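Repro case for the chain-ordering regression, as requested:
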Amino acid sequence: MDKTNSHIPMWLLAELTFACPVQCSYCSNPLELSASRKNELSTEEWISVMRQARKLGAVQLGFSGGEPLVRNDLEELVVEAKSLGFYINLITSSIGLTAEKITTLKEAGLGHIQISFQGSNRESNKLLGGTDSFDHKVAMTKEVIKQDLALGLNFVLHRQNLHQVEEFLNMAQSVGAEFVELANCQYYGWGLHNREHLLPSQDQLIEAERVTNEFREKYKGDMDVFFVAPDYYDDRPKKCSNGWGTTFMTVNPDGEVLPCQAAKVIPGLEFPNVRDHELKEIWENSDLFNRFRGTHWMKEPCKSCPEKEIDLGGCRCQALMLTGDATNADPVCSLSPHHDEVLKITEKAQRPFREDETRQLIFRNPGNSKKIQKEKSELASATDLPNSSTQLN
Amino acid sequence: MSEFNLETATFKLNPRYQFQWEEAQQCHVLLYPEGLIKLSGSAAEILQRCVAPTTTLKLIDELNNQFPGAEGLANDVREFLTDAQNQLWIVPAGE
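-- result from build under test --
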């Protein structure tokens, strides 16, 4: 009933590498970062993925990561993608970008660059991104504008930088950016790990939205500003990636195909790999893509809900992380019997932000990844002990 | 920036947009950062003639030849072009 044929995977997100010079504590990548890049798809494998996706009807292609500029074959991939008929977006920290590289990528067929900022000034950007890169980001922003390539600036928001929205917008306006996205971070991967120190208070959000609206009014027509509110403050959930298995397809650096970037957290799912299966087979027939496609999998209160087609039950990963069961309603929904969990979390976030909280953030880097995995396995073996002893009895 | 006189100016498709036929959707589309516009058959007929610089009169002429006897064609084309100009799908050519 909800099967496939009407669904075209219009968006292909190609996560070229998990390697990244920035260490954002809100990153949605998994906590388990492999230290080595040897398992990454090769140039030929990516070209095959792009060709297959295009055949399925994909038109938008995002090169992302990690930091896609880390890949030496980026230009070659852009050339190939363009010849296949993709519209190509580069989602980057701008580290590794140069004026020459912008020219080359534009000539290769790149349509749009999105540059992310971690803070609104040099010090804060360094503190929150773990990289001294603010001046370079501003320089590259100006260069992209100069070379007349479509540009979006992305300022990822959380409780530690929401007060900087005005400073950021002024910077963006002064360099001539036409499109700015103020996106509250989502709580997956590293973002979930750091949630306590990322989730903003309601007061912070109200103030940031007020400043944004004022700015919009003042610069109407010159700059478009998008404000993405954090999930936890809504009383209805957002659809997962426009609906699980309806529009989006993410291929991660190792070739696994995901309906959304975060789906790896859901246990019991098998992630088919482009090294073993055709993309068409994965999109249309894999258990993964059919598991939560449409509404067939729903339980109450979603099953009989008149709004079920609107949000399709919300985010499966959020349901899992906050209720322990991925087939539950997204607890962001006020109709969910687990909505209390969300309220408990947001209640704790109502304290005012204090500068010294920044020290509590765990930055995304291989060292911390190793440490977290070690802690997890120690915890697992510690909790295993009573079980094994009962078995012995 | 989009201020130009549709009756006198030479214009073309905005290079920021990617215009193409989509087999999977059986229609022409305009692609832009992270988005897509599906075009009707008549919109596509007009826009594919804007890939190279053109004028309103030239466009109407070409379409009249292609679809002889189509009623109200000139008006429809002007209406669409005004809309396309507002959306920045077409921009002045030659700068």
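Ordering looks correct now. The two ends of chain A are 50 Å apart (CA to CA).
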